[in-house]
Specification:
mainly alpha, 2 domains, three-stranded antiparallel sheet, 3 strands, 52% helix, elongated
């Protein structure tokens, strides 16, 4: 349906608005659904009460007018079907004649072709406009509003607008942690993209990750006075016969000056329920903050552990380098000692040079220490080399 709508030119979009289906032009691109969440949500729908009930006295009632608010389609007017659930033959014949299809045609293909047909360089004729409007409504009903018409089985893939309405209506009535979407633009479905839906559903998840059973309903419903739906007292007069116990009690109290015990009980229970809901919201918020704080501390501890491990590696590298310098000095000392005796050293340097010999051939005194490779070795190596030379001189004197 999304692809069909977004292939329309501006002229055809204008005709869609004329028949009252302009809200569908803002339909977001929803390629995937969270079936686990949707099945949970549908299990919370009470058809008789026309309400989504997620807990004790936590219900979100919905009305016919709310469908128009969510989807942007007409509410009211002539019924789609007669009381006998049948369409008169003359109506079917007139539709087929307008569309130019035979009685044996049962496929949606010709309707799609009419909607997609390009008319370039000129305005559509009245006959073309009528044909387009009828074909568009049939496509909308087949693809979105009543998708089971084209299937012989009943699974969530073919629930169409039912899922879109229930999901958008429920999410749009929740007190969202990151801030609520203002209720001043319509249809409401235009704001619920895949990203927004996934974010709110994640916040509404009660069970933690890895739990065997994932449950939802963590977020609390928004106050009825802050939403654009018919459960808002300001909008309740738009629904015929819609009223609540509180309004009826106030009206009767004004007329008779008294209230029945049942009405008093309902008022008291309503106040207690409101208090319980507020307490639950506080406790839920505390639990979420506690969980976030624990995650933050765990992240800090993990970072500290990584830093400690890196510091240990750095210190180990320094000690290893210093030991290498020390043993290099020892090898140099050994080489100098054996060279003085004219014998092969116990440890030979990898690349001995002519400058490795220390001392003058006509003198028992060693050369300047700065000219010796042993003297160039920093730290302990240089000191050990000098000690080795002193021992050589002492031996020659002996």
């Amino acid at each position: 349906m999304y692809n069909l709508i977004h292939g329309l030119d501006e002229e055809k979009k204008g005709y869609v608005r004329e028949i009252g289906f302009g809200g569908l032009l803002l339909l977001p691109k929803l390629m995937r659904t969270n079936r686990h969440f949707l099945m949970w949500l549908l299990s919370k729908v009470d058809e008789e009460a026309s309400s989504i009930i997620t807990g004790y006295r936590r219900d979100i009632p919905f009305h016919d007018k709310d469908v128009e608010t969510v989807l942007g389609i007409p509410c009211g007017g002539a019924p789609v079907q007669s009381e006998q659930h049948g369409v008169p033959e003359n109506v079917i014949a007139a539709i087929r004649k307008t569309l130019g299809i035979s009685e044996s045609e049962r496929d949606i293909g010709p309707m799609v072709a009419i909607v997609k047909k390009k008319v370039r360089g000129q305005k559509m004729t009245k006959a073309e406009i009528s044909k387009f409007k009828i074909a568009f409504v049939i496509c909308a009903a087949t693809y979105l509003f009543a998708p089971t018409m084209k299937n012989d089985y009943f699974v969530t893939d073919y629930w169409g607008a039912l899922l879109l309405f229930v999901q958008t209506f429920y999410l749009d009535n929740l007190e969202v942690t990151g801030g609520n979407i203002p209720h001043d633009e319509f249809p409401r479905i235009q704001f619920y993209t895949m990203e927004v839906i996934n974010t709110i559903v994640e916040d509404d998840t009660r069970s933690r990750k890895g739990a065997e059973l994932v449950t939802y309903g963590r977020l609390l419903p928004r106050h009825e006075a802050l939403v654009c739906y018919q459960r808002n007292p300001a909008n309740r007069n738009n629904v015929a016969g819609a009223s609540n116990v509180f309004n009826r009690s106030q009206s009767r109290c004004a007329e008779t000056g008294s209230m029945t015990i049942d009405e008093i009980e309902s008022l008291v229970m309503d106040k207690v329920s409101s208090f319980a809901t507020a307490c639950e919201y506080v406790l839920t918020s505390f639990s979420r903050k506690k969980e976030e704080e624990n995650q933050r501390h765990q992240a800090a501890l993990a970072d500290l552990e990584n830093q400690s491990q890196q510091q240990v590696k750095n210190e180990s590298r320094k000690v290893r380098d210093q030991l290498k310098i020390l043993f290099a000095g020892i090898r140099h000392q050994d080489g100098v000692s054996w060279n003085m005796k004219g014998k092969r050293p116990l440890y030979e340097d990898p690349a001995p040079t002519e400058d490795a010999d220390v001392g003058c051939p006509n003198s028992d005194m060693p050369q300047d220490s700065h000219s010796s490779p042993a003297a160039e070795i920093p730290g302990h190596g240089s000191e050990l080399a000098r000690l080795g030379i002193k021992r050589v001189i002492k031996r020659r004197k002996e």
